[in-house]
């Protein structure tokens, strides 16, 4: 049974949330972005017999109430805790993807007693952006190939004072198509990500990315990860355009970590290897 609910945060912002699945283990999903919305339909379906899956749209994004922030890591950690409390969970497993992996990690560091397992999917580690961002842009250009010129043109047309949702969606689909190594199906997969189209919160994206960058690479973050007693499963796609070497910094720091890398998967490994993803996450969650 799927049930949609409204979570009210500590500062009164209303968040969209949905519970589904029948497994004994509670599992809260944290979507990527920042500034996007939950796109975990396939993941919820894959894991629904292994866990009770809770999805939510982060503040000011997707189906959640529009708001003006604040766009800080601390505020988003507090929002995630409001989701946990709303569903009456003393402890939960967390699965975060991309930016959501960073959010789930920061939550786990802040509240280790409230997390049973952290599943860290397609994140970029805890080192500075300079460790990986340049290579990421190079890989993106190579993956896009002849589509790159269209992407640049669409970005120029989208960056206008008057917002054009159709152009923004077309830009996003082009941009996201680079996340999939199978060129023949990349646009199809990216179109699925954009359906339904709920719009990108650009202010959230820019400010929260900047806030997260200020933390990465700091001695305090390395030390906190080194002292984390929660088991962590790192899940990667070897064909992700973000260099997987970026995540080595996190893997080295954690005392209780398992890493699974799918050789033919990109940034959304459950798309290219759904069965492998299900098995890896199921093993990470343990017996329900």
TrEMBL record:
AB hydrolase-1 domain residues: 26-273
EC number: 3.4.11.5
Gene3D superfamilies linked to this entry: alpha/beta hydrolase
One cellular-component annotation, GO: membrane
Entry similarity comment: Belongs to the peptidase S33 family.
Top enzyme category: hydrolase
Highest taxon above the source species: Bacteria
Protein name per UniProt: Proline iminopeptidase
Pfam families (alphabetical): Abhydrolase_1 (PF00561)
GO molecular function ontology, one term from the record: aminopeptidase activity
């Amino acid at each position: 049974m799927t049930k949609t609910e409204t979570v009210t945060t500590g500062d009164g912002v209303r968040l969209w949330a949905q519970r589904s699945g029948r497994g004994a283990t509670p599992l809260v999903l944290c979507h990527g972005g920042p500034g996007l919305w939950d796109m975990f339909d396939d993941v919820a379906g894959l894991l629904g017999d292994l866990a009770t899956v809770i999805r939510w749209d982060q503040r000011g994004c997707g189906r959640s109430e529009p708001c003006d922030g604040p766009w800080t890591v601390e505020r988003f950690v507090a929002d995630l805790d409001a989701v946990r409390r709303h569903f009456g969970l003393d402890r939960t497993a967390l699965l975060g993807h991309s930016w959501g992996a960073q959010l789930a990690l920061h939550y786990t560091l802040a509240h280790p007693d409230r997390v049973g397992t952290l599943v860290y999917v397609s994140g970029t580690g805890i080192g500075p952006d300079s460790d990986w961002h340049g290579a990421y842009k190079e890989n993106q250009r190579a993956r896009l190939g002849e589509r790159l010129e269209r992407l640049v043109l669409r970005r120029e047309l989208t960056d206008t004072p008057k917002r054009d949702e159709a152009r923004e969606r077309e830009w996003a689909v082009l941009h996201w198509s680079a996340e999939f190594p199978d060129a023949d199906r990349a646009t199809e997969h990216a179109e699925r990500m954009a359906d339904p189209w709920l719009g990108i919160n650009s202010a959230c994206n820019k400010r929260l990315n900047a806030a997260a960058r200020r933390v990465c690479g700091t001695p305090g973050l390395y030390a906190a990860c080194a002292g984390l007693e929660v088991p962590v499963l790192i899940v990667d796609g070897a064909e992700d355009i973000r260099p997987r070497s970026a995540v080595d910094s996190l893997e080295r720091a954690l005392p209780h970590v398992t890493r699974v890398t799918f050789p033919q998967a990109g940034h959304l490994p459950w798309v290219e290897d759904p069965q492998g993803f299900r098995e890896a996450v199921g093993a990470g969650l343990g017996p329900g």
